[in-house]
Amino acid sequence: MRLLNLWLTRNWFPLALQIFNFFVFVLLIVGGLAANTAGPEAVKFLRNTNMANLIVWSYWWPLITISAVFMGRVWCMVCPMEMLTSLSSRIGLRITPPAFFRSGWVITGFYMLILFVGIHTLAIHRIPDRMAVYLILLMNAALLSGLLFSRNAFCAHICPVGHLLGLYARLAPFGWGVRSRAVCAACNDKSCIAAKTAYHLQGRSCGVGLYPARLDQNTECLLCGQCLKACDRNNPGLAGRPNPGWYKRPWFKDLMELVPFTFAQAAFSLAVSGFVIYEVFTEWPTTAELLLRLPSTIVRTLNTQGIWTDGLITSITLFVALPSLIWFMPFALFRLAGGRLKLNDYLLRFGIVLIPIMAAAHVIKALLKMTSRLPYWPHALHDPSGEETARQLAQGAVKLYSLPAWVDPALTIFFLLLMAVAIGWSLKAMKKLIAVHIPRSTWPCRLLYLLPICYGGGFILMLSRWRLF
Ligand code: SF4
Ligand code: SF4
Q1: What pLDDT, on a 0 to 100 scale, did the predictor assign at position 121?
Q2: Is the CB of 193 within 6 Å of ligand 2?
Q3: What local confidence, expressed as pLDDT, does residue 38 receive?
């Protein structure tokens, strides 16, 4: 950790990694566009045989999700979008983002757009050239927002990836902060937030509007290290500088400090809670069929035709209706039993208990993906566009190698333990929430425990039935 904080004082770090990742992004775009997705049979395999698609959805995305749970927003530290938006804002119009942008609803809306249109309608996770277009759009959004808005508007108010990582970063045992608040109190230049350093190439004041001395949560900090550089370079000789850095902190800190959601974050988390059910439950054909039965029945009943309406109906059912049922059912029972709690308080304060379970489900999906796609690697290395391999797989002309027999049981044990730990922390957070927000709590409060029990229990049941029996 000391080494990382030392590297962050240097010009080359993390800039060199951002530049490297920028070129990787360009290669992934080229690799995605290079795949011809015309063959109807082969296209089913192309998602795993095209190397670019394989890397983006089966390794890059799963790995950054896992990293957020254990280390916070480290991906943002090396993200090329951060570099693009920061650089373009130096020559742009520098307009202050409007209040609507700052409310968080743009991020939530963007996430819904990716889920509803990107994933469920256009299948950007399955079709390599559409994945490439998605990456191009992301890069353009970063560039354009940098050219239009002041500071780092893309990372602060637009990027749903960083927002999701920020959600899980609430659990991480590392966080950004200062070593000594007294040093900041004695500091006159406040270079970490000063307007005069806002557009410096290196050592600029915080682009997402944070003041390191008051930073106590992981949600918004990009770990970019610019405040550390600013503090270091403008040091008038005050001992203890550079003061900001990446430090250890207790696991689940933000969760146990009961940091509430905003409305936009609650809506975002509700959709994520539905998305992770979809991600894990569709791994097993039995639960996939069960989960998708309702949206397909609605589609059939309405007799809609076309991918747009079907995708929309499926998305609303899975990412709005189903999670809403899970979120609101315990609250409705609690109120029916005479409990007193405002709906807003429930949504914003109690919704946070699901974060560990969502994070565990995301980690489970990530590991399932990363391990199950290992057999595709020898083929992807040999044929990066994946077209020929996809054709051969469709014709049964090649076989994928099998993973060692111990992998599946080891993963199953890990998944069940992980989910049990997540449910335990959710229950612990719920206990604290009830003690803090429902004074003189009576028996109906126990109904609120149904929220983590039903949600997490659903995953345990599904995983046990699928992997053990
Ligand atoms: S982080 Fe550094 S620049 Fe910012 S207030 Fe503290 S000592 Fe001053
Ligand atoms: S607080 Fe520092 S490390 Fe965090 S986003 Fe702001 S400048 Fe970057």
Answers
A1: 87
A2: no
A3: 63
Instruction: Note whether residue 298 is domain-resident.
Output: yes
Q: Is there a contact between 412 and 463 (Cβ–Cβ < 8 Å)?
A: yes
Number of domains comprising the chain: 3
Any idea which ligand is nearest the CA of 243? Answer: 1
User: Is the C-beta atom of 419 inside 6 A of ligand 2?
Assistant: no
User: Going by CA atoms, what residue is nearest to atom 2 of ligand 2?
Assistant: 227
Kindly write down the DSSP assignment for every residue of 142-175, as one continuous string.
HHHHHHHBSSSHIIIII-HHHHHHHHHHTT-SEE
Q: Name the 3-class secondary structure at 440.
A: coil
* Angle separating helix axes 160-169 and 263-281, nearest 10 degrees: 90
Check pocket membership of 448 for ligand 1, CB cut-off 6 A: no
pTM over 0.85: yes
pLDDT confidence of residue 446? 94
Q: What is the DSSP letter of 30?
A: H
Digit-coded pLDDT (tens) for 243-284? 999 999 999 999 999 999 999 999 999 999 999 999 999 999
* Ligand 1 site, residue 241, Cβ cutoff 6 A: yes
Q: What pLDDT was estimated at residue 222? A: 97
Residue 184 CA: nearest ligand 1 atom is 6
Q: Which domain holds residue 74?
A: 13-169
Is 6 within the bounds of a domain? no
